[in-house]
Design a protein that fits this description.
By secondary structure, the chain is α+β, with helices and mostly antiparallel strands. The protein has 14 helices and 8 strands. Keywords: Membrane, Transmembrane, Transmembrane helix.
Length: about 450
């Protein structure tokens, strides 16, 4: 497995890779601003600290160069994606500048070369390594650590060979701590620490990158899948504490709304496929928002039929009233749609609708490979039968009297006077029932 080729992204769809790249771009912008804060902090500390009276003062020059380059990096990161080569150069420059800065200390303070090996400024190496970890890309963490280790190794070599007649090497730890002597074991410990920290962070980042890619991939999949579920169902699935299994259900008081285009089947057999699908899309784009505006949840699309529930996915105290409000609005939108079609000299079938309310069973059906939330109960069957009965009555939308009274009790206020029908026989229903015409 190659770390340099970013294997975690292998085989991902381009849209998921684009989402990952957007996360990386946002991270690079964050890193750029953090680097700007670091250089400003360093500059402030330098201005406030006492300074030796020397002719050579490399620190302000180094900080000035770093400030200019960091500002350029901030601007570049906001203009577009930073290429990998620029990030590699940035890592190399960060570490090189830090090492040169540390190296200059012995000149600035007029001390032997070994003087700079005692500088606590080396700790900034770990800041720059950790900074690269924000991108979730182990390659740049490794690059930063390796460059730092090589840089410090060269600094040690420089000290040893700076004065061939006095290498400053000692084996006495006390002499090392209290003078400019060099204890090679201590310096190698620094290199080992840099490499160990780099390796651990790189390994953690590599694992985190896999998690990031999986998370982005699942988020993209969830976003796409949510388009196939009602928002309430998607929320229920996402927030479920336990694995959803078939055969589990809950009794609810809910209302069922059914919509259907009259004559659509005949039209589908006569019109070109593109025209049929375009008409179906127009119909659904008008009906679905009307249903959702009143708290309805789309249970399923049945060809040109739409079945929606109110109070099933999420309990509601106004389920019947919401369903009738949605039905009224759907009928108004359908009538306006037909007028638009006539003005454009094209045919649009009329839309039928019906509502029934009562006790239903809401739950998951299917098997372990394919599950679906659905509703079962007398109200479901009654709503479907009432929708078909519109044609027999010559109206567009009806509701049974019991559901209508329940909606009134829940605060439903009809937009217009409704026609009440007594003792009407309905196909598939044993006893005659009272009906209310919602839309003639």
């Amino acid at each position: 497995m190659s770390w340099w080729r970013k294997d975690p992204e292998a085989g991902l769809p381009e849209r998921v890779k684009a989402a990952v790249r957007e996360q990386e771009n946002a991270t690079e912008r964050l890193i750029s601003w953090i680097q700007l804060c670091i250089v400003i902090t360093f500059g402030t500390l330098y201005l406030l600290s006492p300074k030796p009276q020397v002719d050579i003062a490399p620190v302000p020059w180094a900080l000035s160069v770093y400030l200019v380059l960091t500002v350029i990096r901030v601007i570049w990161s906001h203009l577009g994606r930073l290429p990998d080569w620029s990030l590699a150069v940035s890592v190399f420059f960060d570490m090189t500048l830090l090492m040169v800065l540390i190296w200059s200390f012995h000149i600035q303070y007029m001390q032997p070369a070994s003087f700079y090996l005692k500088a606590p400024t080396l700790l900034y190496v770990f800041i720059f390594i950790a900074l690269r970890a924000l991108r979730f890309d182990a390659r740049f963490v490794l690059l930063a650590g390796v460059v730092a280790a090589i840089g410090w190794g060269l600094m040690i070599v420089y000290v040893i060979y700076y004065d061939p007649f006095d290498t400053m090497i000692t084996r006495d730890y006390v002499a090392y701590m209290t003078s400019n002597s060099v204890l090679l074991g201590a310096e190698f410990d620094k290199i080992i620490s840099i490499l160990m920290v780099t390796g651990l962070i790189a390994f953690a980042i590599y694992r985190a990158k896999n998690l990031l890619v999986r998370s982005v991939s699942e988020q993209a999949a969830a976003t796409e899948l949510s388009r196939f579920f009602a928002p309430e169902i998607a929320k229920r699935i996402k927030g479920s504490e336990d694995q959803i299994r078939a055969g589990t259900g809950e009794l609810r008081q809910a209302a069922i709304l059914n919509l259907d285009m009259r004559g659509f089947t005949r039209l589908a057999g006569e019109a070109p496929p593109d025209q049929v699908m375009s008409l179906l899309s127009e119909y659904q784009q008008r009906m679905v928002p009307a249903i959702q505006r009143h708290g309805g949840s789309i249970d399923k699309f049945l060809g040109d039929g739409i079945m929606a529930t109110f109070g099933a996915a999420e309990p509601s105290e106004t389920y019947a009233a919401d369903a009738l409000r949605a039905l009224e609005e759907a009928m108004s939108i359908a009538a306006a749609w037909q007028e638009d079609c006539k003005a454009e000299d094209r045919s649009c079938p009329s839309v039928n609708g019906a509502v029934a309310a009562g006790t239903i069973l809401f739950g998951a059906v299917g098997d372990e490979s394919r599950l679906e939330y659905t509703v079962i109960g007398d109200a479901v069957n009654l709503s479907a039968k009432l929708e078909k009965h519109n044609k027999d009555l010559g109206v567009r939308a009806i509701c049974d009297r019991e559901s209508y009274d329940r909606a009134l009790a829940q605060g439903y206020q009809p937009r217009s006077q409704k026609k009440l029908l007594e003792a009407v026989p309905v196909g598939g229903i044993k006893d005659s029932m009272g009906l209310v015409v919602i839309a003639p």
